[in-house]
Amino acid sequence: MVQSKAATPEQYLEELPDERRSIMRRLHEAITANLRGGFVSVMNYGMPGYVVPHSIYPDGYHCNPKLPLPYMSLASQKQYISVYHMGLYAESGALDWFLSEYADRVGGKPDMGKCCIRFRKADQVPVALVGELAGRFTTADWIAAYERTIRR
Question: Does pLDDT of 27 surpass 80?
Answer without folding.
Answer: yes
